[in-house]
Amino acid sequence: MKFSNSLIQWYLQNKRDLPWRDTTNPYIIWLSEIMLQQTRVAQGLPYFLRFTDAFPTVFDLANAQEEEVLKLWQGLGYYSRARNLHKTAKQVASEFNGEFPKTYEALLRLKGIGAYTAAAIASFAYNENVPVVDGNVFRVLARYFALETDIAANSAKKEFTELAAELLPKGQANLFNQAIMEFGALQCVPKNPDCSNCIFNDSCAALQLKKVGQLPVKSKKLKVRNRFFNYLVFSDEVNNTLLHKRTQKGIWHNLYEFPLLETDVMEDDHVVFDLIQSQEFVSNDILQIQLYNPEFIIHKLSHQQLHIKFWNVKVSGEMKEGIDWESAQKMPFPIVVFNFIEKVSF
User: Fold this and answer.
1) 267 is catalytic
2) Could you give all domains of the chain from N- to C-terminal order, each with its CATH number?
């Protein structure tokens, strides 16, 4: 089909030089695909290079400690990806002797690998004729064919996957899948694409119908939840601090943070001050409480917006569960906590 051939030719002339494109090693491909989910290439590339340096094989990743994996992932967000990455590596190493399954269907049986990732590995590593459908592919197909299906609808994935499968030239899955994804990333971008310099400006239905800015159709996201975090940065008389591991389900699972006082609403500072004094985080006497940042630090997540303040809480004596700063800084933190530590330079 003309569409597919034109897309592949465009890709061969315009593709970015990225390290995971120089290999058919399924481990490297899998690693890059997990890292780049909901992450821009420019942001993900340094992490990819650090991971492949620290864990050159799936066995290296499988044998690592979870905290080591989370520390390298620190700042990339969506930390469940890192935990699932580690679990999958362990499964591949123990159950498959380090060999990734060679078919789409077999790859789906691995923990943490869904339809998109399985299709990416199967087509990029083994050239299996399966289409890859991500946000870029949704956008390119929706615009080229002027499809008004809500891509957030349950039926959308099946519809777009079937269409992509029809367009995929047999024996060229590797090229076609990378081409359509790259085209969406570089040319058919979400906002203000350069349609005048597009290879499809004479055949794109959305352009002809003047609907480029309206497609793809996507229903509105869930309402963002506001949360109010007060982190208590304890310090005792030997300059130790206190850290807690987030073991509850939800954001930042298994990452470390300072003791947290969360309020349901935005409380005045004097109210939080009184709450800190009334809590029993440590048995030591509180000597002083001061704010590090009078203004909230706003940290945005996909469906949450965190309003964060850090409080300096000095206590008497030596805390039983205290940790020195050198050891503390080796722990994996949410990036907003890590940035605070770096800025204050304890």
Assistant:
1) no
2) 2-132+154-188 (1.10.340.30), 225-344 (3.90.79.10)
